[in-house]
Design a protein that fits this description.
With 115 residues, the chain is of the alpha/beta class. It has helices at 9-18, 39-50, 67-72, 84-89, 98-113; strands at residues 2-4, 22-25, 29-33, 58-61, 75-78, 92-93. The protein has a three-stranded antiparallel β-sheet, with helices on one face. Keywords: Hydrolase.
Length: 115
Amino acid sequence: MAVSRTADEELLRTVAGEFELEFVDTGYAFHLTTPGVSKGAALTGVAEVLGYDPAAFVAVGDSENDASMFDVVGEAYAVANADETAARAADFVLDRGYIDGTLDALRAVRNAEGE
């Protein structure tokens, strides 16, 4: 569950503790998640269903909740506005942020495929 960062953080942390949920502050929203549920686990599951190796995928992200996905893909790009956790987990940190950085990652992948 994602909640606006204007929500009561202390209350959300209390709820997370009572229901054995993980609390994550991505810098953009507060997230309450079931332990073991992550973007990396989801991508691995989707790849398996599709018959692909997760390393065949490319990921672009900007926050802590993207790090698990970065760990399983073949190439991971953090946009310039990424938090420290995402930037450390990425293979590449882009010069531009937000959608401009995402477009730069897509161009890099497209150009690499043309080689």
